[in-house]
C-alpha cells in the first residue's frame, strides 16, 4: 500500500528551510521530525516543477499541491481499470485465480496497476458491490442450499375439502442465486425428496453438493462430530451423484445463503400470493412458477445480468448432467430374518436366503420393488406387494424345504 502523503505545511517548511538556512537534507529532516528520504523527494519534485522559495504571491498550499502532485495524480487516474464484475465472475470458476486475472489485465493494459494494487482495488470493489446484492462465495456449480420458508400459504385439500396450510420448499444455487420454490403438503420424507428431484429438473443439472438444515427428513442424527444422513436422502444423493452436507449446529453462516433466498421468496413470491384462494397444490404451484420466473429474470441492481442469465452463461455448464431416469423415492427399513427365512414388511412376507436366518437386514422399498441388503450387499429382490400374503423364491430355501 502507498504511504500517506505528509501534510502540505511540512512541504512548505521543507522549501523554506532549504532556501533560508544552511541545513543539510538530514538536518531539515531532524528539524521537522521526519526522515531525510521524503525531504529529498520533496526537493526533487519542487525542482522538477520549477518551484522556488520564496513562492510567488498568491501561491496557496492548495495551488502548490496541485502544481507538485497534479501530473502524478492525473497519471494514476488515467490508468485503465478492469471490468470488476467480470473478474469476480471468473474467480468463482474452477481454475481461475486473482493472479491469473491480473495477468490477463496486464496483457491487455501494459500500463495498468501492479498485482498488489489490483488485489486491493478488487477487494474494495467486492466489499462495496460484490456482496451487497448477490453474495457469491461459492464456485459455479459447487453447491445448492435447501430449506423451508417460515411463511406459508393456504389451499383447499381436494380430498377432504378442508383448508390446509402448505409448506414452501426453497432451493438456491450458491453462485448464480438461481431460485427454486414450490409448495408441498408436508415436510415429510416423501415430499422432501420429491422437492429435490423437481428442483434438479428445474435447474437442468445437479450441483456437486447440497447443503441442508438439520431437519428430520434429511438428517437422522445431528451432532457436531456425528451427523447421520437419512438413508433415503443418501439414496437420492447417490442417484444424482451429489453429496449431502448438513449445516453444523450453532453455525448460522452455514445457511446464510438459503436464509437470504427464503427472504427473497417470501417478499417477491409468497407475500403477493398471501391473499389469494387456492384449490389444491397444483393451483398454488402454478402461481408460484409465474412469480418465480419473474424473480429469476429480474436484473441485478449493481451487477450485470440476472439470476437466469448467470446460470445459463456460467453455472449450468459447471454442474453435473441429470441422470437418464429420475429418482424413484425409496423407503428404508430394518427387519429381522425369521426362522422360516422370511421377513415381514407391511403385512407381507418375503423370502431371504436361509443363511441369513436370525440376522438383521436393511430393506429398501419403492412402489414397485423390495430389495434386501446385508452389510451393504444386496441379497434378495422381490416385486413389491401391497396386499397381505407371502412371496417365496425356491433358491432362498434349503434343499430339504424346496
Using brief descriptors, characterize the structure shown:
elongated; four-stranded antiparallel β-sheet; Arc Repressor Mutant, subunit A; 402 residues; Nucleotidyltransferase, domain 5; alpha+beta; disordered N terminus
Which helices and strands, and how do they pair?
Layout: H1 8-20, H2 25-32, H3 36-49, H4 61-77, H5 84-91, H6 98-108, H7 115-130, E1 143-148, E2 153-156, E3 163-173, E4 179-184, H8 189-203, E5 209-212, E6 219-221, E7 228-229, H9 231-239, E8 243-246, H10 256-273, H11 281-297, H12 307-315, E9 331-336, E10 342-345, E11 348-351, E12 360-365, E13 369-374, E14 377-383, E15 389-391
Parallel strand pairs: 1-5, 5-8, 11-15
Antiparallel strand pairs: 1-3, 2-3, 3-4, 6-7, 9-12, 10-11, 12-13, 13-14
Number of helical elements: 12
- Summarize the main sheet: 6 strands, mixed
- Residues in β-strands, percent: 15-25%
The CATH topology of the largest domain turns out to be: Nucleotidyltransferase, domain 5
SS content category: alpha+beta
**How many whole angstroms does the radius of gyration measure?**
34 Å
Q: What distance lies between the first and last C-alpha atoms, to the nearest angstrom?
A: 85 Å
For the residues shown, what is the average pLDDT? Answer: 81
> What is the CATH class designation of the largest domain?
Alpha Beta
Shape: elongated
CATH architecture of the largest domain: 2-Layer Sandwich
Task: Identify the CATH homologous superfamily of the largest domain.
Answer: Ribonuclease H-like superfamily/Ribonuclease H
Number of domain units: 4
Q: Got a strand count?
A: 15
Helix percent reads: 25-40%
Secondary-structure element series: HHHHHHHEEEEHEEEHEHHHEEEEEEE
**Uncertain stretches:** 1-6, 71-76, 130-136, 221-226
Amino acid at each position: 500500500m502507498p504511504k500517506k502523503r505528509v501534510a502540505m505545511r511540512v512541504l512548505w517548511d521543507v522549501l523554506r528551510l532549504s532556501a533560508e538556512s544552511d541545513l543539510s537534507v538530514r538536518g531539515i529532516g531532524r528539524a521537522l521530525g521526519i526522515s531525510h528520504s521524503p525531504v529529498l523527494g520533496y526537493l526533487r519534485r519542487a525542482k522538477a516543477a520549477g518551484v522556488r522559495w520564496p513562492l510567488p504571491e498568491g501561491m496557496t498550499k492548495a495551488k502548490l499541491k496541485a502544481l507538485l502532485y497534479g501530473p502524478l495524480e492525473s497519471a494514476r487516474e488515467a490508468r485503465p481499470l478492469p471490468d470488476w464484475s467480470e473478474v469476480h465472475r471468473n474467480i468463482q470458476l474452477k481454475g481461475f485465480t486473482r493472479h491469473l486475472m491480473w495477468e490477463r489485465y496486464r496483457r491487455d493494459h501494459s500500463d495498468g496497476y501492479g498485482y498488489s494494487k489490483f488485489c486491493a482495488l478488487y477487494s474494495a470493489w467486492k466489499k462495496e458491490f460484490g456482496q451487497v446484492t448477490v453474495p457469491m462465495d461459492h464456485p459455479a456449480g459447487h453447491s445448492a442450499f435447501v430449506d423451508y420458508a417460515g411463511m406459508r400459504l393456504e389451499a383447499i385439500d381436494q380430498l377432504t375439502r378442508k383448508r390446509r396450510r402448505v409448506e414452501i420448499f426453497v432451493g438456491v444455487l450458491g453462485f448464480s442465486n438461481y431460485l427454486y420454490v414450490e409448495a408441498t403438503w408436508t415436510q415429510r420424507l416423501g415430499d422432501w425428496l420429491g422437492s429435490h428431484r423437481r428442483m434438479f429438473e428445474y435447474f437442468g443439472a445437479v450441483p456437486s453438493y447440497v447443503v441442508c438444515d438439520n431437519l428430520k427428513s434429511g438428517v437422522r442424527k445431528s451432532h457436531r462430530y456425528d451427523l447421520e444422513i437419512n438413508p433415503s436422502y443418501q439414496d437420492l444423493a447417490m442417484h444424482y451423484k451429489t453429496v449431502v452436507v448438513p449445516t453444523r449446529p450453532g453455525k448460522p453462516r452455514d445457511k446464510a445463503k438459503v436464509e437470504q433466498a427464503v427472504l427473497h421468496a417470501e417478499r417477491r413470491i409468497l407475500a403477493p400470493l398471501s391473499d389469494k384462494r387456492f384449490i389444491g397444490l397444483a393451483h398454488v404451484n402454478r402461481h408460484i412458477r409465474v412469480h418465480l420466473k419473474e424473480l429469476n429474470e429480474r436484473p441485478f441492481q449493481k451487477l450485470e445480468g440476472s439470476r437466469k442469465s448467470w446460470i445459463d452463461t456460467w453455472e449450468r455448464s459447471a454442474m453435473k448432467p441429470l441422470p437418464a431416469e429420475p429418482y424413484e423415492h425409496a423407503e428404508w427399513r430394518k427387519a429381522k430374518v425369521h426362522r422360516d427365512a422370511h421377513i415381514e414388511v407391511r403385512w407381507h412376507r418375503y423370502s431371504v436366503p436361509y443363511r441369513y436366518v436370525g440376522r438383521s437386514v436393511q430393506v429398501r422399498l419403492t412402489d414397485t420393488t423390495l430389495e434386501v441388503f446385508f452389510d451393504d450387499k444386496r441379497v434378495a429382490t422381490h416385486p413389491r406387494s401391497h396386499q397381505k400374503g407371502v412371496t417365496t423364491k425356491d433358491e432362498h430355501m434349503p434343499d430339504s424345504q424346496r
